[in-house]
Amino acid sequence: MTPTFGVVGLGRMAQALLFPLLEAGLVQREGVRAVVASEASATCLAQTHGLAVATDAAAAWSAPVVLLAVKPQQLEAVAPAAAAGSGGLLISVLAGVTLARLQRLFPGWQCVRAVPNTPALVRAGLTGLAFGVDVPPDQRSWVQQLFAQVGEVHELPEAQLDAFLALTSSGPAFVAVVAEALADGAVAAGLPRLLAQRLAHRTLAGSAALLEERDLHPGQLKDMVSSPAGTTIAGLRQLEKAGLRSALIEAVLAAAQRSRELA
Ligand SMILES: NC(=O)C1=CN([C@@H]2O[C@H](COP(=O)(O)OP(=O)(O)OC[C@H]3O[C@@H](n4cnc5c(N)ncnc54)[C@H](OP(=O)(O)O)[C@@H]3O)[C@@H](O)[C@H]2O)C=CC1
Ligand SMILES: O=C(O)[C@@H]1CCC=N1
User: Fold this and answer.
1) Which domains are seen in the chain, by residue range?
2) Potential cystine with 31: which of 2, 95, 232, 242 (Cβ 3.0-4.6 Å)?
3) What separation in angstroms does the CA of 190 have from each of 31, 182, 186, 197, 201?
4) Which of the listed residues 71, 122, 259 should we mutate to test ligand 1's pocket, taking the one with most ligand atoms within 8 A of CB?
5) Residue 200 annotated as binding?
């Protein structure tokens, strides 16, 4: 019989994780027991992806492994239904929600706090993991393998997960704003929009690949590109004047603080 895999909340994050896992065969399509809030979402997801998606929570909690991916504000509403199951492994991706709170709300479940990001959808994800003390070693390595399918996995002390989330999970939005603004600049300078967007994305991806593959400090790459009295230093001067570094630092700090508040 196909092992079942429960999913409580099949929104953007759960889909970004589940679809690559289905493609890789780590989770069997016919074993998925997903639960969402609205009939409209359930019907749409079931028809589009050929999955069992219900609005009756009991469907998911009978599985031995459950991925919990509702909004933190929806946690209290979904928790009581877990009592219908007989316990197992609970993998929560809820921002800020601590292992201690999960263990209180889900007695009988061994809890894992995972901090994934949406690039998982294209297997370029990052996941931070912290395990409840009662999760046995074989389950820990299974969870690590699961998330390794969609990118890089880092096991961290739980206290570091809010900072991890601020950089890696909220970070795609920060980077998207940078990409959009760079493209806007190129349009202002005369390039067509679609070309500007493509070039902005490739510039970000190429720069990241160069930093990683050559193990460069970001300052080295900045200096490599900046000729004396050249174009780059003229642009960098504007970035410093506008406080880009400070804005990014404060964005990451604000996201980490918000994650702690959501606990
Ligand atoms: N998006 C991201 O980049 C990241 C998100 N996270 C975390 O992932 C979690 C989900 O976020 P995200 O995917 O963006 O949110 P979405 O709003 O896209 O998805 C939420 C899902 O929960 C379902 N839901 C709501 N209430 C209930 C309920 N009572 N019972 C069952 N299902 C319910 C919704 O169903 P319906 O569609 O019917 O409303 C929907 O499928 C959050 O806790 C967030 O902190 C973590 C890292 C990154
Ligand atoms: O914005 C949020 O709350 C979620 C968690 C991290 C990314 N998105």
Assistant:
1) 5-161 (3.40.50.720), 171-262 (1.10.3730.10)
2) 2
3) 52, 13, 6, 13, 18
4) 71
5) no
